[in-house]
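Many introductory courses stop at the sequence. We go one step further.
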Amino acid sequence: MKKEIEFQKKIDVVSTIEYTGMEDGEYMFRIIRHDLESMYDDEEDEVAAIFNKDGGVELEAYNSAYEEEVALIEEMMHELKEEGAAN
């Protein structure tokens, strides 16, 4: 599963978020950020996610994750759960 979100944080950013599978009981996501107005290289980050006891999603970003990225990862987690990939 892979999705993109475009948002603005002083500059326009496109984040590609990809579910990469399970690792030590956590759902792993890779984020690749592309700054639309810059000549800098893309940034890459990793996020681990779990379902808590109440069925909500908890995330741990290794560096940082923007609010828009967090919302999309939460949406992706619920889609994975509905598809049966998140047991």
